[in-house]
């Protein structure tokens, strides 16, 4: 866990759950000093819910010497390896970007900026820029790998030598994943070199910053609209996460009912929560 790093450590690699446990245990670690950290790499920073962990961790440990500019979320996938990484900011530089997106818009595959006051929004933090020497594009989720518009969510693809090249013994899956040739609106390939599908859903924001909203394997189609399990987990956890959900334990999946998918949200409630608390929390999440 992060609270056990050496006082002289320059770089630490954590997951959102590590940060959560550090918050739980920080009262027993009164002599922690994180002033030496230059990079706090959040390995699962592409998960939409990681932003709340980063904010809560910074809020508690800023008094222990942690500087906001050292938090560096990153995005990765088994096929494309490390896709993007936020570099440490210079002191006094522009703070990291975050986007507040309408869940309604996301369900239709488009980006619509909303206000943070609502529950039906998804707040994302950037995961930095694409890795040096790599090209990134965003293609439509279904059909021909056509480039998305700037206000559309799609699957991120990268062109670089630093990715995987094949699945052992799976020629068809290999070709579909590692030999993608994105095309423009008129159907012409944008590059002579193949791109690799990352399996990450998101978009490229201002300044080339990468925003990841979920994963392809968590995509659900309900009532003709697309939802991502990671989006829904992040939105549910935004409703009093520390007060009701026990240790952030929540799962989202879909089941088929009468030829249509239905979303199921399973959350473990805290031992001291009452049924009334449970009902009120559930009612707010459903909004």
UniProtKB/TrEMBL annotation:
InterPro entries: AMP-bd_C_sf (IPR045851), ANL_N_sf (IPR042099)
Gene3D superfamilies named among the record's database cross-references: 3.30.300.30, N-terminal domain of ligase-like
SUPFAM superfamilies: Acetyl-CoA synthetase-like
PANTHER family: DISCO-INTERACTING PROTEIN 2 DIP2 -RELATED, DISCO-INTERACTING PROTEIN 2 HOMOLOG C
Protein name (database record): DIP2 disco-interacting protein 2 C
Organism listed in the record: Ataeniobius toweri
Lineage: Eukaryota, Metazoa, Chordata, Craniata, Vertebrata
